[in-house]
Amino acid sequence: MIPDSRSSSAAPGEDRTIDVPSPEPASSGGANRAPDGTQRGPGFFVAFCLLATALWILGTGGASNVVPDLGGTPSFDRAQLTTASPRTPLAHPPQLFLNGFERSCEDCHATFEPGERAAAARSESERVQHVDIVISHGRNDRCLGCHHADDRNSLSLLDGTPIRFDAAEQLCRECHGLVGRDWEAGTHGRTHGSWRTGSPEQSRLTCTECHDPHSPAFPRIAPLPGPNTLRLPPPSERPPHSAEPLWPRSAIEASRVNDASRGPH
Amino acid sequence: MKQTRRSFLRRSAAAATGLAAVAAALSPLRELEEGQMPDLEGFLQKHYKEMSEEEMVRALERIEARVEKDYGVRAQVSDVRAQDGVEFVYALNLSRCIGCRRCVHACVAENNQSRAPEIQYIRVLEMPRGTLDLEKGNHHYDHPTVPDDDHYYLPVQCHQCANPPCTKVCPVEATWTEPDGITVIDYDWCIGCRYCEAACPYWARRFNFTKPEIPKEEVNPRMSYLSNRPRPSGVMEKCTFCLHKTRNGELPACLEVCPVGARKFGNVLDPESEVRKILEKKRVFVLKEEANTLPRFFYYFDERYAAGGGPEPGGAPNHSLPADDVPKGSAPAGSGEHGEHGEGG
After folding, report:
1. Are A47 and B13 in contact (CB under 8 A)?
2. Is residue A243 part of a domain?
3. In the prediction, which pLDDT does A27 show?
4. Does any CB of chain B come closer than 8 Å to the CB of residue A242?
5. Which among B102, B246, B303 has the least Cβ separation from residue A80?
6. Which domain does A148 fall in, by range?
7. How much is the pLDDT for B234?
8. In this predicted complex, what is the ipTM?
C-alpha cells in the first residue's frame, strides 16, 4: 500500500532532525519556517502527527460504513390503501339474487295484500323476513321509515312521495339537514377525481356510497402501523420530563460498552 | 539552491502530509456506492430557478437514468409548473377524522419516501378530548380499532405557510414558496444543514440520513423534479401537496385514500371551490396561529349539538351519527374529563 511506504520512508527523516543539532540555519527550509533551528524539530513533529492522523483516517474510513438496523414500517395489507368508494351506489330498482334468479323487491312484495303491507312496518325483534339486515339508525328503526309502503321498488319521502333508490340523498337530508347542506356545498363527504370545480373528472360520492343506510355509522377500523421513529419510546413508557434522563441509565451504560468495543471514532 | 538530503526529506514529508490530508478529506467519497458520484454535468447543475428549459430536460434525463440505475425502475420524471390563478389550500375536518393512518401510508407510497429508515410526511396525533395542547398528542397510539372514544385525531403535515419560517433560514435558498403556495425544495441544491427542520413549528420537514430504501415494486414511477423523485442521501424533504398530481388537476394521495372524507383540497381563489366554502361557512382554525406562519392548512369542525342544545358530550361513541341519535345513557367513562358536560343537558 502506498501510504505505508510513505510513512516508512519519512520515519528516518524525523529521527535525523532530532539527532542533529541545527547545522545549517534556514538554508532550505522555506520562507515560512523560523530561521532558528530549534523550531524545526517540533515542526516536523506536528507534520508527522498530521500525517499519521490522515493515514489513520484513511485506514479506518471504511469502518464508519457499518449501517445499523434502521427498522422500517411493519408490513400491512396494501389493499387497504384503496381509493375506491367504500360501498357501491344503490341501483334503481335494487336487484337481489334469490335462489339463483335476479329479482326486484316488488317481485315478492306485489303478492302481499294491502293489509299485510302495512304489517311489514315491524320493529327488529318482530321481523320474520330480511332478518339479516341490522338496523342501527337511531330512532329510525322501522322499514317504512325510508322504504315506500306501496311500492317496494322505491323509497319514500316523509310526505309519501316515491323517489328512486339512486336519489336517496333527497330522503336522507329530510332528517340530516345540516349534513345535507354541507354535502351540497362540498364540505361533507368525499370528492373524487379533481379539485377543479365543474371539471368532468370531478365526482362527489352520495350518502349511500359511504354509509350503510341500515346502520349509517361509519364502522370502526384497524389503524395502519404507527411511525417507527427510532428515537423515543411511546409516551406511556417515557419517564416524566426533567425527573430522569430520557433514556434509562442502563441503556446509556450499554451504549457506552458498545462504543468502547467498537473503538473510538 | 542546493538540494540537501535534509531539505529533500523535509519537502517530501510536507508533500506527503499534504497529499494524505487531501486524501483524508476526500475519504468520505469512498463510502459512496458504485455510481453514486455525480457526473461533471450533474455536479455543475444550476439552481432549479436558474436552469434553462434545455438544461432542465437534461437534468430530468439524468434523474431518470439515476432512478433506473438505483431502483431498476423506468420512471417518468417531469417538471410541472404552477398554474396562474391557483392557490392551493387544504382543509381537514376534525369531526370526521378517525385516525386510521391511511393518509400516512398512501403518502409514503405516492411520494417514494424511504421505508427504512422510515420517513413519513403526515403525523397523526391522538389528542385527549378537550385540549389543543400538542404536547399531549401521541402519534404512537395502537388501538385494535379506531377511533378511540376518549380521543380525537389531529393529522399534521406541511402547512405550506404563506409566511414560512423554513425558507427564511435556508442558507443556500434551496427551499422557497412557489406561486401556487406550495413550499418546495431543490433536492440537488440542498446542503442538508437541517436549519429548516429546526425552524418549522409543525415538524413537517424530514432529513434523509441515508439513501432512501424503496422496494423496487413499490417505487411510484410517476415523478417530478420538485416533489416525489427519490431523494439523495443527506437532503431535506417535505410534503408538496403531491404537486405532480395536483398541478395536473388531480387530488393529493392523502385525500384520495381518506375513507371518511375528512380531507378537502382545492383552489382558494375559486369562489365555488370546496375549500373556499369551508373557509366561508365552517368554524376554521390553524395550528399555532401565534407563530404568524399564516398556514394554508386549515382544520375545521362540524356544527353538531346534543338534544339538550349544549355542546356534544365528550366521548360520543360514534363520529358519524348526529348527536341526537347517540344512544342515551351510554356515555363512556372518558366524559368525566369534561366535568360540566358529563351529565344533565
Report:
1. yes
2. no
3. 44
4. no
5. B102
6. 90-189
7. 92
8. 0.79
